[in-house]
Design goal:
globular; alpha+beta; nine-stranded mixed beta sheet; 21% helix; 32% strand
Length: 170
């Protein structure tokens, strides 16, 4: 299994992968396209898992902001992550998440936020974001679904306010 940065020649496979992973719907695949076309796109944080020349997994982490009372803090949001149905439950998603966390930390970001399944992401260190003074008003989701991972010790102490997803998410 090769975990690497997505290349433009992967775009077609990544689109189809997202369709398949999300029940033959295009929503997530089109989200990836919109993020790629936005200023929040960070090419090094679009990561694929490749097996025998075939893209079988993809994760996209992109820029967003937490708006505090006096400051705006750059953060990373994770969305979407997809694994081909034939390759699910083999740890590929975990490999992609760990690689994304490593790269985002290396780039100097303090936190990754997401809206995701409350029984899946905690195994990778994600916790409910609300207990850290973070809020999400753009999407009405249960508190346990809005999660955060601290990339740098102490980063969450300085990160208070509302996560604002960029326009590409709408």
């Amino acid at each position: 299994m090769l975990i690497r940065t997505e290349k433009s020649e992967d775009y077609g496979q990544v689109f189809r992968l997202n369709e398949l992973a999300f029940g033959n719907r295009e929503d997530e695949a089109k989200l990836v396209e919109r993020i790629r076309a936005s200023v929040e796109f960070i090419p090094e944080l679009s990561i694929v898992a490749e097996e025998k020349g075939k893209v079988v997994g993809h994760i996209l982490l992109s820029g967003a902001k937490v708006l505090g009372e006096k400051h705006e803090h750059p953060v990373i949001v994770l969305a979407p992550i997809a694994v081909h149905p034939d390759y699910q439950k083999q740890g590929i998603g975990g490999l992609l998440i760990e690689e994304g966390k490593r790269r985002a930390a290396t780039m100097g970001f303090g936190a990754i936020l997401l809206i995701g399944h409350p029984s899946y992401y905690p195994r990778f260190g994600f916790v409910p974001a609300g207990v850290h003074g973070l809020e999400l008003l753009q999407f009405p989701v249960p508190a346990e679904v809005f999660q955060v991972y601290e990339l740098r010790a102490g980063a969450l102490e300085q990160l208070q306010g509302e996560l604002k997803y960029p326009a590409a998410f709408f």
